Amino acid sequence: MDWPLLASLDEDERGRVLSAARRRAYARGDVLVREGEPSDSLHLVASGRLAVRVTTRDGDNATINLLGPGDYFGELSLLEGQPSARSATIVALEPAQTLSLSAAEFRDLRTRHRAADHLLLTLMARRVEELSGRLLEAMYDGLDQRVHRRLGELAELYADGRGPTTIPLTQEHLAELVGGTRPSVNQILRRLEDQGVVALGRGKVTVLDRARLDAEAG
Question: What is the tens place of the pLDDT at every residue in 103-128?
């Protein structure tokens, strides 16, 4: 597949990075990494969709993000210094594959190819940009806009054509993703359903009018 995060590297450099990575396959429900475990590898998501889950103060599990092809996790393991711990648990929502690059392999790659440093900077810069965007969203955007925007992102993640896109997540999971309560998110979804933007089903939301949803998201 085409890896956007490797776009800054030339063809030979991309080949070196990918050849050093190991392809790993997972079945639905498999745990790729667990929160708190030593973080010793970077994973590039080749196929499938993954849930990023963290433990709340009450001891519950909350889904805070979804990853799909082209995404990545574990970049902190590539930094020099003290070993870091996984900040979240990653679970396969469907059969998935990743390319895994261990911290040791990355250190070896850095000694032989300067492009590895450029890759690390790209990974960190993209993560900072993503987290900064989420922080600004949480501070300044209302719940309605957060729901609209997240639905648009999920529609992009699950899109398989130009027709309606089904997102196989419960309203509880969607509430976790936007930082709202299930009743509040349900009210917003009901309004969108009345407007013909989405259709609600058991354990799923189908986006019918992506253009209208994007307009609502701003």
Answer: 888 888 888 777 788 888 888 998 89
pTM for this prediction? 0.87
User: Which pLDDT tens digit goes with each residue over 162-210?
Assistant: 789 999 999 999 999 999 999 999 999 999 999 999 999 999 999 999 9
Distance CA 129, CA 123 (A): 10
Select from 185, 178, 189, 184 the least CA-distant residue to 213.
Answer: 189
Instruction: List the one residue out of 81, 188, 92 whose CA is nearest residue 143.
Output: 188
- Provide the Cα torsion 63, 67, 72, 75; round to 10°: -10
Coil, helix or strand for 28?
coil
Question: How far apart are alpha carbons 211 and 189 in whole angstroms?
Answer: 16
How far apart, in whole angstroms, are the C-alpha atoms of residue 81 and residue 215? 45
